[in-house]
Amino acid sequence: MLTxxxxxxxxxxxxxxxxxxxxxxxxxxxxxxxxxxxxAILVSLTKSTTYxxxxxxxxxxxxxxxxxxxxxxxxxxxxxxxxxxTLKEIENRFGKLQTIFSNLDYSHYILTACNLPNVYYVIHNxxxxxxxxxxxxxxxxxxxxxxxxxxxxxxxxxTVSDGLKKEMESLNLFKPAHVTRIYNPFxxxxxxxxxxxxxxxxxxxxxxxxxxxxxxxxxxxxLFTALKQLPKEIKLVCLGANQNxxxxxxxxxEVGNQVIVTGFQQNPYPWIVHAKCLxxxxxxxxxxxxxxxxxxxxxxxxxxxxxxGPNELLTGPLSEYLVPVGDxxxxxxxxxxxxxxxxxxxxxxxNHLGHLNIAQQYVNLS
Length: 366
Fold this sequence. Notes:
Blueprint: E1 9-14, H1 21-35, E2 39-44, E3 59-61, H2 76-94, E4 99-103, H3 105-111, E5 119-123, H4 127-136, H5 139-150, E6 156-159, H6 162-170, E7 178-181, H7 188-195, E8 207-211, H8 220-228, E9 235-239, H9 243-252, E10 259-261, H10 269-274, E11 277-280, H11 289-296, E12 301-304, H12 310-313, E13 322-323, H13 328-340, H14 355-363
Parallel strand pairs: 1-2, 1-4, 2-3, 4-5, 5-6, 6-7, 8-9, 8-11, 9-10, 11-12, 12-13
Pfam families: Glyco_transf_4 (PF13439), Glycos_transf_1 (PF00534)
Protein name: Glycosyltransferase
Domain Glycosyl transferase family: 199-342
């Protein structure tokens, strides 16, 4: 047990506490750092929340304005000043801040303007694919995204997969000072405990599950095209934000009767454990939280072999369930195989991703 003098203070900064994978990682990491005996303090740039706020973790909210205002180059220094004031308030309460871990683009953009020496920037998503997606949305979106990434020049980075680490080391857009790979943390025992909880909303008929916000990156269109090729009695449960967008696309693609849209779930694990398999159809990821969570629940998975992460989780016999990006026919074949001949998932497959082990790797950087 650490004494009060042994405890270190770690600050985790994130754009918001809304229902994305990176936000979930930040909350879990804060809990794990706290569990191994140090102080973990969450700083959310905005008050946007969907996840339950931890009762035993201090949380500070910095800004009242919408998230979109935080990319402004004209307000960047003012925003940095407000973040520095929040950090000073935390330091006055807890003492010296050992290390700050910044998460997501707006946090990176503002933290780099603070010129602090003890900051690591955690990369949760593929850079090149994010830029390519932004380019398709117009030149202004692309220039903005490029500006957000370019501030990482000469910074210390953490990536959540080996694939992301290799990308960071080979980019022309910026050259980091150093890159460390640390996988995302998973409280394996808690996930399995939560998976055993009853939920009357779970459908009795066989279903595939997909978890992810309604965004082009997630490729619901590819998933729905694959669904058309499966038996009509197989349902597809979609957990994620923007229920209307998911349902409208399903109706447009004439699979609305097979799709069950439930929206965001604080506890998705009973849904995962009762599913016949989990499908991931993304164009790109950073690691993919939901793949790991499904494997922890011993639920079969089918995934696109997208950059980055899935091929680091689906190894050995599981690699047969990796399919090309943007190929609904291959996805349908793999899903049918998973449904008819489910593979046994080893219970200890992802023990190396246990939350306390991962938290210690973060602490060891200090």
